[in-house]
């Protein structure tokens, strides 16, 4: 039988506000245990939450970018359950009136463009972290993460393949990045994803029983887990069995998932409106202000680069693969660098240098004026391209002064016809055989002679000039 | 020699400001009286004598012209108000010995006004109860008759003021917890408008209903204390940012033309005759002061008790879930698993009434029952709110009984919780609608026990309530009648 896989995603995004959702504590990652908490986020008796409005702005910004209808009067709700990492024994979340609903995201895969529906997105607070010490047989709780703002984005069951899921997550990550609302680091847990998956006979429009997979820490893990779970469910069904609705945990080391809890054990969260927080009002004017201040998204930049600079699709994609890279490219162009030249340098040398050093684009040491100056020297014929690449490597880490470096190292191109003529004459004299070969029509020998001249000029000869003079002299003989 | 304990808070504050008595002197006297008499009443759970004397000396040294009217006046705080470094137990085994790392906003405001706290006052466990008998540390006894309850949940606060063990007290009121014990103990108490006094640092029972307020000897004392307590607090998102008018300076404004409404639904034929008579007599006194008495209707009242117990229990089941033995407070020893730690800590740590309400609350919020109970109760709440709006179209202030009858005997109510809940009929609608209401002594029943009258006003009209009560107290002496029970009885 032919099977179809149906997937929906729940993605938790940690918003990068400086302080937590309901108190002034820092959200910084990696602080000493329990060094970033207060009576409010630790749920001490009598402490009360006060909403950080910056989180609402971030959430609404994302909601609008995902095409959602923003809820004008939102509410928070309490999700009640017991666990030691949840000090109030309830999580403040949004169930009944979330930030937004009914959005969509366009994704591109090898199969073409597709629209993924967004069911809803809502704000909620993160929980703390349990640290088990098997040696001492103790469990300790670190409350630093308690109250860190999260945005949960729930899609419709619109995915059919792991490729689509990864394309969606890439697109989502790009959008969040361009909005500047999250650093989306999966390894630090600031982007977390649960996969809901079911299979059904191809052509059916009835959904099968689904499972939910947790603990997916990388795109690779997500793709593998989807493949594994789809196969597992198909096997169960083909053997005449039934898929059990359950939560499964992905074990990356074993490349397999195992059941955590089944539906019979699912908790009743007893949601009800959070009485400590008044409704959150988002007016039309406020939404407009947020839209007006919103940075351009990757999609918008790609359109602009293609239309305004005439760059090919590949370049547009590469340049917008990272917000900092796009910003660097735009700064180059603003400094007068021709767009295509700028694009080539960014995609070639800049990306190469970053990856050689293992740096993220935000950490780029060289600044746009430095690279723009370098490109201008090439354009003006003062540096040949190979020398320019060496200069780039030399100034990259310290953002050094290009003019000063070139002057100090005497790297400017030799464009003095007299010098070139003298050098050519010497080379021709020393290499009679290649000269004869050229005259006999052997093209290869011409290249050898060019190389000899360039070597004598320490690589700084203007290649165009060298070729002209050589041709001229050979013609004379 | 003057008997300072017989003065009101404002009278004592004036004597202190004039140098007729020193703060350490009155503080010492109050502490001695507590040591002597409170063994019987059990109104205090923690007496912070040393801190109180230190503070008294410091305040005395800083005494200057222009200090506020309550400067140096000793008082007590209900034990559900967080006090830095001082045990805050909510009268529960689960929080025995718990010392919060911070002060409630109201505690900070009182300190800024020169208040001297004598200690923390007994109450029903987590403010759940109408008699202060659910306290883990033993019940409060009514100073008028030690065989009777002081009311609840702010029973310790009302008993302390009645017994002269503090010139005023700070309580909290979720469904009548200030007004009802005030009535049982013959003192004056006011539950302010929801949102006018910060709840930051008040250990939550039912967050949408809880409100902090004062209990005092008379309306003027309550006005002075409330003036200190009220005001916007950025740490409480439900506190209302607005200008809060002066209360004390407005007390003597005449009542001319003020319409006082008697809701027909509050005086049913089965109401105790003495209660009805006392409240109607109070209306008569106010009429002679220039007020107009009007008969009004207050529809929706019949839903109030049921709606209150559903909503309050639902919120409580969530608010009290954090007491699990993991972070602070009492923990069951020798447990082998997380589940056992939770179960045994909560089973052994909470008293019967708290558990009853948490179970009820968890039930009404559970899937399949949420719509039938919780949502229905919210609709009832809206109906009650509408009922009050309608009534305030016909009058400025409502006058009702506080309770159907005077204080019951100890142990009488606990056996029948439903009957006990029904006794909250007059007080809970006020919390559901978020309105301000005041309880004042208006007479004695056949056994010489105090009875209370309740005044209810529209939101933020505390000033009117206090004016009416003050006018009443100018022409009556019920608030001055001395307790006859206890040690003197």
Describe the structure.
The complex is a heterodimer of chains A (477) and B (489). Chain A has helices spanning 53-65, 162-179, 219-238, 284-292, 298-309, 313-319, 323-334, 339-357, 368-379, 385-396, 402-408, 417-430, 432-439, 443-456, 463-476; strands spanning 3-14, 69-70, 73-74, 77-80, 90-93, 100-109, 112-125, 129-133, 138-142, 149-155, 191-201, 211-216, 246-251, 256-262, 272-273, 280-281. In chain A, strand 6 (100-109) and strand 7 form a beta hairpin. In chain A, the strands form four sheets. In chain A, strands 2-6-7-10-1-11-12-13-14 form a nine-stranded mixed beta sheet. Chain A has a three-stranded antiparallel beta sheet with strand order 5-4-15, with no helix packed on it. In chain A, strands 3-16 form a two-stranded antiparallel ribbon. Helices cover 40% and strands 21% of the residues of chain A. Chain A is elongated, with a radius of gyration of 30 Å. Chain A is an alpha+beta fold and 477 residues long. By secondary structure, chain B is α/β, with parallel strands linked by helices. Chain B has a domain at 4-254 and 474-488: Amidase signature (AS) enzymes. In chain B, 37% of the residues lie in helices and 14% in strands. Chain B is built from 15 helices and 13 strands. Chain B has helices spanning 9-17, 23-41, 49-61, 105-112, 155-162, 179-185, 219-229, 273-288, 304-319, 338-349, 352-365, 370-391, 417-422, 428-433, 462-475, and strands at residues 44-47, 74-78, 116-121, 141-142, 145-149, 168-173, 188-191, 211-216, 259-263, 292-296, 397-401, 437-444, 450-456. The two termini of chain B are 23 Å apart. The interface between A and B is large, with 28 and 43 residues.
């Amino acid at each position: 039988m032919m099977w179809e896989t149906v997937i929906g995603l729940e993605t938790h995004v940690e918003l990068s506000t400086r302080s937590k959702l309901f108190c002034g504590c820092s959200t910084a990652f990696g602080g000493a245990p329990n060094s970033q908490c207060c009576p409010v986020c630790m749920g001490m008796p009598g402490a009360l939450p006060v909403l950080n409005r910056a989180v609402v702005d971030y959430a609404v910004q994302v909601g609008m970018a995902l095409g959602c209808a923003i809820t004008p009067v939102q509410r928070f709700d309490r999700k009640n359950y017991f666990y030691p990492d949840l000090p109030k024994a309830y999580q403040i979340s949004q169930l009944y009136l979330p930030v937004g609903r009914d959005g969509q995201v366009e994704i591109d895969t090898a199969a073409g463009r597709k629209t993924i529906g967004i069911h809803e997105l809502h704000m909620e607070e993160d929980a703390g972290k349990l640290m088990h010490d098997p040696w001492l047989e103790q469990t300790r709780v670190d409350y630093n993460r308690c109250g860190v703002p999260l945005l949960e984005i729930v899609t419709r069951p619109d995915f059919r393949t792991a490729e689509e899921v990864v394309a969606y997550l890439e697109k989502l990550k790009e959008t969040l990045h361009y909005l500047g609302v999250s650093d989306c680091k999966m390894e630090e847990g600031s982007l977390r994803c649960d996969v809901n998956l079911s299979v059904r006979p191809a052509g059916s429009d009835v959904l099968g029983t689904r499972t939910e997979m947790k603990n997916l820490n990388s795109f690779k893990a997500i793709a593998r887990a989807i493949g594994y779970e789809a196969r597992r469910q198909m096997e169960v069904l083909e053997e005449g069995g039934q898929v059990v609705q359950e939560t499964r945990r992905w074990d990356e080391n074993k490349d397999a998932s195992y059941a955590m809890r089944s539906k019979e054990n699912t908790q009743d969260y007893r949601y009800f409106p959070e009485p400590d927080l008044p409704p959150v009002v988002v007016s039309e004017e406020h939404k407009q202000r947020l839209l007006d201040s919103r940075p351009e998204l990757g999609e918008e930049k790609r359109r602009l680069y293609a239309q305004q600079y005439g760059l090919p699709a590949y370049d547009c994609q590469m340049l917008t693969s990272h917000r900092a890279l796009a910003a660097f490219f735009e700064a180059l162009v603003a400094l007068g660098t021709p767009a295509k030249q700028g694009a080539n340098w960014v995609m070639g040398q800049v990306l190469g240098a970053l990856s050689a050093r293992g740096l993220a684009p935000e950490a780029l040491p060289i600044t746009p004026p430095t690279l723009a100056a370098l490109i201008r020297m090439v354009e003006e014929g003062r540096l040949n391209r190979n020398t320019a690449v060496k200069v780039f490597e030399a100034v990259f880490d310290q953002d050094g002064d290009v003019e000063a470096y070139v002057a100090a190292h005497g790297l400017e191109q030799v464009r003095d016809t007299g010098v070139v003529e003298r050098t050519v004459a010497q080379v021709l004299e020393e290499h009679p055989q290649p000269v004869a070969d050229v005259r006999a029509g052997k093209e290869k020998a011409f290249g050898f002679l060019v190389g000899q001249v360039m070597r004598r000029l320490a690589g700084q000869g203007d290649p165009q000039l060298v070729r002209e003079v050589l041709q001229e002299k050979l013609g004379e003989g | 020699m003057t008997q300072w304990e017989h003065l009101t808070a404002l009278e004592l504050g004036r004597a202190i400001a004039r140098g007729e008595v020193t703060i350490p002197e009155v503080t010492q006297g109050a502490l001695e009286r507590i040591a002597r008499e409170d063994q019987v009443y059990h109104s205090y759970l923690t007496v912070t004598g040393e801190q109180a004397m230190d503070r008294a000396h410091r305040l005395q040294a800083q005494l200057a012209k222009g200090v506020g009217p309550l400067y140096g006046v000793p008082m007590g705080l209900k034990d559900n108000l967080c006090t830095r470094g001082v045990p805050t137990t909510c009268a529960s085994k689960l929080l025995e010995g718990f010392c919060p790392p911070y002060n409630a906003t109201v505690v900070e405001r009182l300190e800024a006004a020169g208040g001297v706290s004598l200690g923390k006052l007994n109450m029903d466990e987590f403010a759940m109860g109408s008699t202060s008998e659910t306290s883990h540390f033993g019940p409060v006894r009514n100073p008028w008759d030690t065989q009777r309850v002081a009311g609840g949940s702010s029973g310790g606060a009302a008993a302390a003021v009645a017994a002269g063990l503090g010139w005023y007290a700070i309580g909290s009121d979720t469904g009548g917890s200030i007004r009802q014990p005030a009535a049982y103990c013959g003192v004056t108490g006011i539950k302010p408008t929801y949102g006018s006094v910060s709840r930051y640092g008040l250990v939550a029972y039912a967050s949408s209903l809880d409100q902090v307020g004062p209990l005092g000897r008379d309306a003027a004392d309550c006005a002075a204390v409330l003036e200190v307590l009220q005001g916007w607090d950025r740490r409480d998102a439900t506190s209302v940012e607005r200008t809060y008018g002066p209360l004390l300076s407005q007390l003597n404004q005449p009542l001319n033309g003020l319409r006082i409404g008697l809701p027909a639904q509050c005086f049913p034929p089965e109401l105790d005759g003495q209660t009805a008579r006392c409240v109607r007599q109070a209306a008569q006194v106010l009429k002679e002061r220039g007020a107009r008495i009007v008969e009004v209707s207050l529809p929706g009242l019949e839903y109030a008790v049921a709606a209150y117990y559903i909503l309050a229990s639902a919120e409580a089941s969530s608010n009290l879930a954090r007491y699990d033995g993991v972070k602070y407070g009492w923990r069951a020893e020798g447990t082998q698993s997380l589940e056992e730690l939770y179960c045994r800590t909560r089973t052994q740590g909470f008293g019967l009434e708290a558990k009853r309400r948490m179970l009820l609350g968890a039930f009404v919020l559970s899937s399949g029952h949420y719509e039938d109970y919780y949502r229905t109760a919210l609709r009832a709440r809206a109906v009650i709110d509408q009922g009050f709006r309608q009534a305030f179209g016909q009058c400025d202030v409502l006058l009702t009984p506080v309770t159907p009858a005077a204080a019951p005997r100890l142990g009488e109510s606990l056996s029948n919780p439903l009957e006990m809940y029904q006794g909250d009929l007059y007080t809970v609608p006020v919390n559901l609608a978020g309105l301000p209401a005041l309880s004042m002594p208006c007479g004695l029943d056949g056994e010489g026990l105090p009875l209370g009258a309740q005044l209810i006003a529209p939101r933020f009209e505390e000033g009117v309530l206090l004016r009416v009560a003050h006018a009443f107290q100018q022409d009556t002496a019920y608030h001055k009648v001395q307790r006859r029970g206890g040690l003197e009885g």
